Amino acid sequence: MKTRSQSRKVSKLQRQHKINRGDARRLADVSYTATKAKNEFGRVLEQAIHGTTVFITKHDSPRAVLISIDQFQALERAPQLKLNTLSEQFDALLDHMQTPAARRGMAAAFNASSKRLGKAAVASARKCA
Fold first, then answer.
1. pLDDT tens-place string over residues 56-114
2. Strand 61-66, strand 31-33: pairing
């Protein structure tokens, strides 16, 4: 159960760092001052190894984070996975745009009169409404 002092600490962290209550609560629960982290490094390290994200604070402000090697490697891989996914999606869209039907459609759009484009826009807006 949360004590009144922990609730105040969460509220203070929210205001200071403009973070949501859940993040502030997590920061309040597993954070150490730099001095305490230095003096109790073995315990802090064990928490990180077991998957707990440990925040290190200095002057009541988060300055560092200690995480397990597994969490670090997952974060390190994430941008590459996202980039690969985006590349695959781009390639699929490009392939779809290179079909003969898509080429004819684009040629018709570029060669259309302003009146024809206006009618197409109205028809499209009616479909969406």
1. 999 988 999 999 999 998 888 877 777 788 888 888 888 888 889 988 888 888 999 99
2. unpaired
Dist. CA 11–CA 5, nearest whole Å: 10
Q: At the top level of CATH, which class does the domain 4-67 belong to?
A: alpha beta
CB neighbourhood size of 107 (10 A): 10
**At 58, phi and psi to the nearest 5?**
-140, 125
What's the token pair of residue 112? 């259309």
Which tokens sit at 50?
């077991």
Is 0.70 topped by the overall pTM? no
Domain ranges of the chain: 4-67, 71-128
